[in-house]
Structure formats: structure tokens, C-alpha cells
Write the C-alpha cells for this entry.
Amino acid sequence: GAGVSQSPSNKVTEKGKDVELRCDPISGHTALYWYRQSLGQGLEFLIYFQGNSAPDKSGLPSDRFSAERTGGSVSTLTIQRTQQEDSAVYLCASSLLGQGNSPLHFGNGTRLTVT
Amino acid sequence: GEDVEQSLFLSVREGDSSVINCTYTDSSSTYLYWYKQEPGAGLQLLTYIFSNMDMKQDQRLTVLLNKKDKHLSLRIADTQTGDSAIYFCAEGSGYALNFGKGTSLLVTP
């Protein structure tokens, strides 16, 4: 089966514009994560979805960031009024169970550049 | 969140062994992971170890865990140029893994 798919792979946008990043998780995986990877930094947790439960949004850096997961599958991360500091690689991951013993499987990420 | 620390760079010659080290602070960690990231790609799961184990071997990879010292290492035997990548250590007890900043491994001919 296919792995985690993210689109677009690259996105260049002007400061102040809104962007949407898409993630298709592995079929059957109940948990979906968004992480952000900035140059020279580790992975910063953004948001977590598990089944029909309310998402854990504790990692979202500001109210300009939001995410949704429709039908327990595809997820969209939206960044409104983008700023230059939003430039990073946004990684999506899914896991079968969403527990510490259930490995995360990552997509190749969306590289966002805000000019 | 809890801290996961790794050295940032490691350079080895082709054919030598590489050892990448990691320390973590969360004593409740149940699983510890090693991921590999090649340029332009996402993170690929290499291996993981349960906290009640002290060693796991998988072909050229050996993971050692010292739970008392909260120290994890990844040894790559007979390192090849294709092993050049960034290696991330991660710990998990809940649902969100906590990652280190990654160690860039450079393998020279």
C-alpha cells in the first residue's frame, strides 16, 4: 500500500497570503500528526488527531494555524496571513494506534517558503 | 516538553562503525526510536526499542539502551556512503513522540 502522501511538495507564497497543506495518511491508521521542521531544528509537534476524538492542538504556534481531518482520513493544515518565520518543512505522519508503541510513518513533507 | 539531546555532527570513513548517541530526560518513556532522514525526504523509521530491553540488533544496526542513565545509542556497522543522512532519536510514552534535533552523519570514502 501507499505511504503517507503530502501535497504540494513545495510551496512558495507571499507574506500575508493563506496556504493549505494536505496530508493523506496510510489507510487504516487512526492517528495523524503534523510536525514542523525548521532549518537546523528538530521536529516541533503541532497537532494530533485520533479517531473521532477532539484533536490535541497544543503545539500550534499561533491562532493563524489550524487543521482539520475530514472523515477520519485526509487532513489539511491551514496557515493564514503567512509570515516569513512560517518558512519550514511541514511533515505529516500517521500511526496505526496513536500510542507510544505504534511507530509514526512520515510523508516527505511540504517545504513552505514565505517571501 | 521533555528534552532529547543529540550531538549535531558525526563524520566517519566508509567501512568504519558509526555510533550516534542520544540522551533523554523522560523516565516514563516506554519506546525509543531511531529515524533516518535523507535530503528532501521525510523521516524513515529505522528501528525502535522497548524500555525494558537493553539491546536490539537488526542487521547492521545495533541499539543500546541504558535506562538508568537515560542514554540511547545507534551503532551502524560497516558504514556506507548511502548511510549519510540525518538520524533522529525520539522517545514516546504518550501519543506524540519527542524528537531530538538530529545528528548529521557524513560518510567519506
Observations:
- The first strand of chain A starts at residue 5 and ends at 7.
- The interface with chain B takes residues 4, 6, 31, 33, 35, 40-43, 45, 48, 50, 56, 59, 91, 93, 98-101, 103-109 of chain A (CB under 8 Å).
- The beta strands of chain A are 5-7, 10-13, 19-24, 31-37, 43-50, 65-69, 75-79, 88-95, 105-106, 110-114.
- Chain A has no helices and ten strands.
